[in-house]
Amino acid sequence: MVLQVQTSTYEAKTQEIAKQLLAATQENRSFFSSLRDQMRWDDKLLAWAMSNPGLRVQLFRFIDTLPALHSKSEIASHLQEYLGDESVELPAALKGMLNFANPDSMPGQVAATTVGTAVETLAHKYISGENIKQVIKTVERLRKEKMAFTIDLLGEAVITEAEAQSYLERYLELMQQLVEASKNWSAIPAIDEADGEAIPKVQVSVKLTAFYSQFDPLDAKGSEERVSDRIRILLRRAKELGAAVHFDMEQYAYKDITLSILKKLLLEEEFRQRTDIGITIQAYLRDSEQDTEDLISWLKQRGYPLTIRLVKGAYWDQETIKAAQKHWKQPVYNDKAATDANFETITQLLLENHQYVYSAIGSHNVRSHSRAIAIAESLNVPRRRFELQVLYGMGDKVAKALVDKGYRVRVYCPYGELLPGMAYLIRRLLENTANSSFLRQNLENRPIEELLAPPIVKEEKNSLTPDSDFLGAADTDYAEEEVRIKAAQAFQNVRQQLSKTYLPLINGEYVNPPEFVDSLNPSNFSEVIGKVGLISVEQAEQAMQAAKAAFPGWKKTPAKQRADILRKAGDLMEERRAELSVWVVLEVGKPVKEADGEVSEAIDFCRYYADEIERLDKGVNYDISGETNHYIYQPRGIAVVISPWNFPLAIACGMTVAALVSGNCTLLKPAETSSVIAAKLTEILVEAGFPKGVFQYVPGKGSQVGAHLVNHPDTHVIAFTGSQEVGCKIYAEAATLKPGQKHMKRVIAEMGGKNAIIVDESADLDQAVVGVVQSAFGYSGQKCSAASRVIVLQPIYDAFVQRLVEATKSLNIGEAELPSTQVGPVIDANARDRIREYIEKGKAEAQLALELPAPEQGYFIGPVIFSEVSPNAVISQEEIFGPVLAVIRVKDFQEALAVANGTNYALTGGLYSRTPSHIQQAQTEFEVGNLYINRNITGAIVGRQPFGGFKLSGVGSKAGGPDYLLQFLEPRAVTENIQRQGFAPIEGAD
Q1: Are 202 and 242 in contact (CB under 8 A)?
Q2: Active-site annotation holder among 74, 761, 784, 879
Q3: What is the SS3 assignment for 364?
Q4: Which of 50, 170, 188, 580 has the most beta carbons within 10 angstroms of its beta carbon?
Q5: Local confidence band at 26 (pLDDT 50, 70, 90 cut-offs)
Q6: Is 950 exposed, middle or buried (0-12, 13-18, 19+ CB in 10 A)?
Q7: Distance separating alpha carbons of residues 223 and 213, to the nearest angstrom
Q8: Which residue has the higher pLDDT, 1 or 814?
Q9: In this predicted model, which residue has the larger pLDDT, 419 or 84?
């Protein structure tokens, strides 16, 4: 179905204006062609990127890496690595330039200089200056051309509070210097006044999230308070100086909270009458029209106009990929025509409400500008209430043509060092070279009718579809306000259920045990989450006999029926997601977002293993003429699951349902500190329909009940997650044949890691610091996948440690249930004391770079960072299971890999690098079960990153992967001779 955007009353005028503008901007095609061979290298790079998609990707990746390369040899070798890739078809000139044997050779140095200079020249096209002096020169030139400006400060991502404070101070300094310079500027009526009203000569554009390093929609209140304090300082100073301030819009996750903060702030008495402030709307967002309508309603209530800058939006790829990865609805239009149509709709909406809003229409598409002008002229919109905007270095000819026609044009001018500005540069290059870009199409001399045609909106298809059939559960999107309200309500509901008693489930009955223990909230150990009954060895034996009795019937239950019970369990978890998250937060001290992710993982295990058993149940046929050969699986018998406290729902659920769906009767013995969550899992599995005796919940002491079940002659499978010490003991005991035992026990054991992240000299430090902080201190370092070592190459070691320390200092430490918390408590007093002992060992063998204080009322330990740590130090070799990070210095990448592989573990590992050869080498030589490149190393997703390691990190196949269920099954081969008296059915014969 194709919907034509209605040709409205404005269309004829739009076409007329657009043709005039286009005539003024069109290149002379033959002249352009003749120049192509004489073009400078920066132009050549752009032209090649336009015509060759493979080269475009590798070239932009190289440009992204360039700021981290500090010598010509490094630049030359990376040039060869990126552009010498077999997938890249090189133009002859580039191929010739890259044909050097050694990066240190003269041809290598020449290539590095040529391309380095070309990229710098490209950057200067789109970045208005590297310092304030250069920016002032640029804006003075723009003013001579009768163009107004707004200045945006480029820089590193704000990941520390020191950087957030610096961002504010740099803007205060920028405004001061611009206003000082403006005193010498002569007035230009076209841009400095309209309708008898003065327009501020100086305008700056700021990003809200940069005012607080821990900005997070989940912590809407905390983020609002911290951001608003700094914005007030900025707005007060802007008023004193007579400068205007515009707020840019960033990623979709921040949109609603950004609008909410600005609406509240700009209704405060001090700011309500200000009209020199602006807000941005991105037309590629599906809900942008509704947001615009809401803003206009709010402006009517406010009584004083503000500027709304309308742009298409700059994060399309990022938004599309994030939504696909998270299984969230796409927030952006997938079709550019839909964005263009929406842009025109919102343009009309803004201009029709010109008495309440100043419209700033930002585009490089001649049709978009012409549409705005056609509407503005038809409605007689006053000049003060309407302006057109372009980005610096983009659409310069359009801007000049618009000025010549008497319209107010403002140029958005990013400024800053070229190094941190590279991400901005790549967005501009992508925009310039995309097939759908108006600038590119105009350059290619497409027919005028095609360039100026109204956007045709096609029926949309999802732009990214998952590569596998398995679609995981979507995590909760806390950017939505109603979701945050629901989460708060869930905390209230669960708090009313605290201190209840939870009994063991044996043979379908809840039974009275001889002993009870209190499960405490590690954030506040005076709060009892629940009283848990611990079974005796005699009751464990009763459970074992019940399982034995139930097994024959469960074994015969069709796989489809077992799978459907599992799917029902997954659906029940989805229904109770908010409450289950709260139980995880309160019983084991896991922060809210991570608890929600754990519920997703539990749901995924149910659905993934349901699919898997149906796949395996088909078996495999190896038939030949006259004989059938069928390879099939059968359940092993009785499974004992011993689950940990650190993933009390996901791992307990994953191991349990894998055993159950495979046809085994299963006894779940959870860790004592997380037995309430296991009781909640039990309620769900019973409600889903697992028969009595098939699943039993048997909390008890590991040394007694656990040992009895492990050593029992009727136990067939032991699935364990926990410490190396206990895991090795179970492995040894299971290997001993007990009296009456007629089988060998299968042990699946996941036993932790001493996980390392390597950061090389080409790494994106913004990305690396954030990833290391999340991997090391998420859930206080209490994940088997957590980073406890970071191995950093010598050239960037000091810079990395400095930013790592500052980023860690900026984390919020507190009770797990607080939405601002990133680092909660450790699990109990024993864990706290053991971690403290390791910290003391660390102080004796390394330099203490950071030790953060922690609250007293719970089992808290503030993050600790040690620098200059020896690879053989105790804190480099032993699993600490707490928020303690060792930073190790190495001379080169080969040494980094040797250090990373130099422990007894092989669970997870990470690499931050933009050097293709390093990435390739790590893929083959980094000894870990799960290797993560240029991302954090925790949070494996079922069916996407099956999880598990080797060496002393564990034994058995990866959880959430295609081999996992095989461990709970026995394979059999059945062969039948189907010949009778010398004849057999032959397929295809008459």
Answers
A1: yes
A2: 784
A3: coil
A4: 580
A5: low
A6: middle
A7: 9
A8: 814
A9: 84
Q: Rounded to 5 degrees, what are φ and ψ at 40?
A: -70, 165
Amino acid at 861: I
Angle (nearest 5°) at CA 94 between 92 and 98: 115
Question: Please, is 609 exposed, middle or buried when counting C-beta atoms within 10 Å of its C-beta (0-12, 13-18, 19+)?
Answer: buried
Residue 653's pLDDT is what? 98
Sheet arrangement for strand 627-635: 620-621, 627-635, 969-977
**Distant-in-sequence contacts of 447-452, Cβ < 8 A, 24+ apart:** 448/19, 448/22, 451/22, 451/366, 451/367, 452/14, 452/15, 452/18, 452/19, 452/22, 452/366, 452/367, 452/370
Distances in whole angstroms, Cα of residue 723 to Cα of each of 316, 345, 782, 876: 44, 60, 12, 17
Which residues are CB-contacts of 53 (< 8 A; sequence separation ≥ 6)?
Answer: none
Sign of CA dihedral 719, 724, 726, 729: positive
Q: Would you call 246 helix, strand, or coil by DSSP?
A: strand
Task: Assess contact for 787 and 937: CB atoms under 8 A.
Answer: yes
- In the annotation, is 784 catalytic? yes
Backbone dihedral angles phi then psi of residue 751, each to the nearest 5 degrees? -125, 25
Enumerate residues 6+ apart whose C-beta is below 8 A from 460: 333, 334, 335, 338
Rounded to whole angstroms, the Cα distance separating 223 from 244 reads 24
The secondary structure element, H or E, covering residue 152 is strand 148-153
Residue type (1 letter), 134: Q
DSSP letters, 549-576, are HHHHHHHHS-HHHHHHHHHHHHHHHHHT
Contact 671, 721 (CB under 8 A): no
Q: How far is CA 206 from CA 236, 253, 280, 308, 667, in A?
A: 15, 17, 11, 14, 57
* Amino acid letter, 478: Y
Pick the closest to residue 92 from 37, 30, 54, 43 (CA basis).
37
> How do strand 969-977 and strand 627-635 relate by DSSP bridges?
antiparallel
Neighbours of 938 (CB within 10 A): 24
pLDDT digits over 617-654, tens only? 999 999 999 999 999 999 999 999 999 999 999 999 99
Q: What is the mean pLDDT of residues 951-971?
A: 97
Q: How far apart are CA 465 and CA 468, in angstroms?
A: 9
Cβ–Cβ under 8 Å, residues 333 and 286: yes
Distances (CA, A) of 366 to 4, 19, 166: 20, 9, 38
Spatial contact of 111 and 76, defined as CB atoms under 8 Å apart: yes
Element containing residue 515 per DSSP (H, E): strand 515-521
Q: What is the pLDDT of residues 240-260, one digit of tens each?
A: 999 999 999 999 999 999 999
Contact 716, 748 (CB under 8 A): no
Residue in this structure with the two tokens 């019973």, named with its chain if needed: 686
Render pLDDT for 706-717 as a digit per residue (tens, 0 to 9): 999 999 999 999
**Which amino acid, one-letter code, is at 926?**
F
Spatial distance between the Cα atoms of 448 and 18, rounded to a whole number of angstroms: 9
Integer Cα distance of 359 and 655 in angstroms: 58
Identity of the amino acid at 903: T
Q: Name the strand (E) or helix (H) holding 60.
A: helix 53-65
Catalytic status, residue 606? no
pLDDT reported for residue 34: 41
> In sequence order, which residues have a C-beta less than 8 Å from that of residue 111 and are 6 or more positions away?
76, 79, 97, 98, 100
User: Of residues 224, 319, 612, 750, which has the active-site annotation?
Assistant: 750
Distance CA 755, CA 909 (A): 5
Give Cβ neighbours of residue 662 (< 8 Å, ≥ 6 apart). 613, 633, 635, 636, 965, 968, 969
* Environment class of 727 (CB within 10 Å of its CB; exposed 0-12, middle 13-18, buried 19+): buried
| Rounded (10°) angle between helices 366-378 and 336-352 | 20
